[in-house]
Every structure is written in C-alpha cells, then in structure tokens.
Task: inverse folding
C-alpha cells in the first residue's frame, strides 16, 4: 500500500496495554489512516476504554472520533475486568493524567461503524482487537456490512496454541462467544490473528523503553509505563517471557498483518465458536474439507487464520515504525 493512499482503518478496541501498542503503531505508520476508534468493554469497562482511547489519541496529538460501544456480552453474564493484567485503569495504573481537550463522538460504536461503511463503501478496513459485540451489533443494524467494508482483521481466537483464559479459549472470544460466532459467520473478507501467532511474538520492555527514551514525549512515556506493568504480569506467569522481560504483542500483530502480510503463514477454513459449557469461547477450525455427519459447519464462510509468524521481522518493524518521526512536541 502506498502511503499517499493509506488504508482507512476503524480500530475497534478495549484499551488495554497491548491495544495501546497497537494504536500507536497504527498512528505512527504512514500507510494507515485511523478514521475512528470504537471502544468496547473487555480489558476494562467500556467507560474506561473510551476514556483511554480519548487520552491515548489526544496525548499523541490526534483528534480522531472516539465512540463508546457495548458494555456487556450478549448472552453470558459480564465478568469483572482483569485489572491484574492491565491495571485498574487499563494502562498499568498511571500515576496521573494530563488534561486533554477531546470528547466522545455521541454515536454508539456499532452505529459509527455502519455510518462510516455506508459513507465509504469498499474502503474501510476494520481492525478489531477486543470482544466482538460492536461488530455483531453493527451486522444486525446493517446486514450488508460485509460488502460495505474492505476487510476485517481480528486479534481473536486460537487453533492449536493453548488458550489464555481456559485451555481452549482466547480472551476476546471468551468475553463474548455469541458475538464472535456471529462475526465468524458473517461472510466478510476475514483474517484471524490469534494466539497461534501472537504468543510467538514477545515484545521486550527494553525496546519500548528505547522508544520512550528516543522521543521524550508523554505518549511514549505513558506507553512505557503501561507496558512495564503488562510485562511484569507476563513475566510472572511465563518463564520464557521472563527471560526477555517483555510481553506478548497480541493486538499490534493485527496491524502488522495489515501492513506486512508476508510475515505470516495462513490457513483457510471454517471457524465456529463454542458458546457454552467447559469449552465456551473455543475457536474451532475445520482445517480439511472432509465429510462430517454433524451439522453446523456447512454453508459457513471461510476465514483466513494466521498460523505461523516471523517474530523477529514483526519486532523489527514495530520498533522502526515507533522510532519514526510521528510525534510532534
Ligand atoms: C487479547 O485479550 C486482551 O486482553 C488483549 O488486549 C488482546 O486483545 C489477547 O487474548
Ligand atoms: Ca485488546
């Protein structure tokens, strides 16, 4: 993609530390034009997610429309946000916040997605890195949405890699499995960037510190503070992450897939989500086209699923994009 004709992206997010890494990668990348940030519950409440999206974009000097979206899962009861992973505030418990002059777009996230897709048919890429309630609701408002959007990229799910909420479930899907199954069945051009690849990419905290030292800017200081909290969590539970003292890249990988798809090896198949019981939130992929007597898999669209990744190339690209001259004093 030519930077003079960048991807128009709506970023659907629950910020969240890795969401913040992803947002700053997108804002820094010359081939990405973030035209809206739609928030949802997930890593934090939806109110906190919207507050964080406004704050992160404002301190980076951007005035991008930010909307508030769904606050709970469709069917299952909501759970308290995982403050032990992202902090009570979603950004590693910031000591203070600078005043900002940026307020919410009054529309609900789903309505904003529909309005933008109708206004720019075939042009918008939707990168979704939180629970999928906003997309599911947008599909209910506008059933033609899959034809109005250019492409949808999800940080969601897992096929072979163990889950991170249960042995089989990834957090974004587990948070709203009914919405996720709806989204996987909608028929858009869909790519799943899940734990099969995001658990391969460990972002060293030292890299984020070097970026903050380079820019000496509030935005990258906030990112460094947040990633330090997140890296402590991951280093506490995964010895191989502790060795590097870092964190999984998760959400930023969805954007790196957009800008550098050659870093990823993908498979294609039908994805369904278990919505109840011990397997709830499991993403199950039909990887081979063989006959099965059980129904529920026929006439479902195909998802492209990232299975392998060049982790070193991802980290090098993340670092060089964030080191570029994208922040203004
Ligand atoms: C996903 O869940 C959230 O905690 C992260 O922000 C990421 O989107 C990883 O499973
Ligand atoms: Ca997220």
Result:
């Amino acid at each position: 993609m030519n930077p003079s004709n960048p991807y128009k992206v709506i970023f659907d997010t629950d910020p969240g530390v890795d969401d913040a890494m992803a947002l700053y990668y997108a804002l820094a990348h010359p081939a990405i034009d973030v035209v809206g940030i739609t928030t949802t519950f997930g890593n934090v409440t939806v109110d906190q997610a919207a507050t964080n999206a406004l704050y992160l974009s404002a301190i980076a000097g951007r005035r991008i429309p930010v909307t508030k979206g769904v606050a709970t899962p469709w069917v299952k009861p909501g759970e308290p946000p995982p403050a032990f992973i992202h902090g009570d505030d979603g950004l590693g418990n910031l000591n203070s916040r600078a005043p900002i002059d940026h307020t919410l777009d009054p529309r609900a996230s789903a309505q904003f997605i529909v309005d933008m897709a109708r206004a720019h048919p075939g042009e918008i890429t939707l990168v979704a890195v939180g629970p999928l309630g906003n997309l599911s609701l947008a599909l209910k408002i506008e059933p033609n949405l899959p034809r109005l959007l250019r492409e949808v990229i999800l940080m969601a799910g897992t096929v072979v890699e163990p889950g991170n909420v249960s042995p089989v479930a990834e957090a974004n899907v587990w948070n709203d499995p009914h919405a996720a199954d709806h989204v996987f069945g909608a028929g858009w051009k869909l790519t799943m960037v899940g734990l099969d690849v995001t658990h391969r990419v460990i972002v060293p905290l030292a890299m984020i510190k070097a970026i903050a030292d380079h820019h000496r800017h509030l935005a990258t200081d906030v990112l460094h503070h947040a990633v330090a909290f997140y890296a402590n969590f991951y280093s506490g539970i995964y010895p191989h992450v502790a060795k590097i003292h870092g964190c999984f890249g998760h959400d930023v990988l969805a954007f790196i897939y957009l800008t550098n798809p050659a870093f990823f090896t993908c498979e294609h198949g039908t994805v369904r989500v278990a919505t109840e019981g011990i397997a709830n939130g499991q993403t199950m992929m039909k990887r081979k086209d063989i006959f099965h007597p059980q129904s529920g898999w026929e006439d479902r669209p195909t998802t492209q699923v990232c299975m392998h990744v060049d982790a070193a190339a991802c980290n090098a690209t993340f670092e060089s994009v964030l080191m570029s001259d994208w922040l203004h004093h």
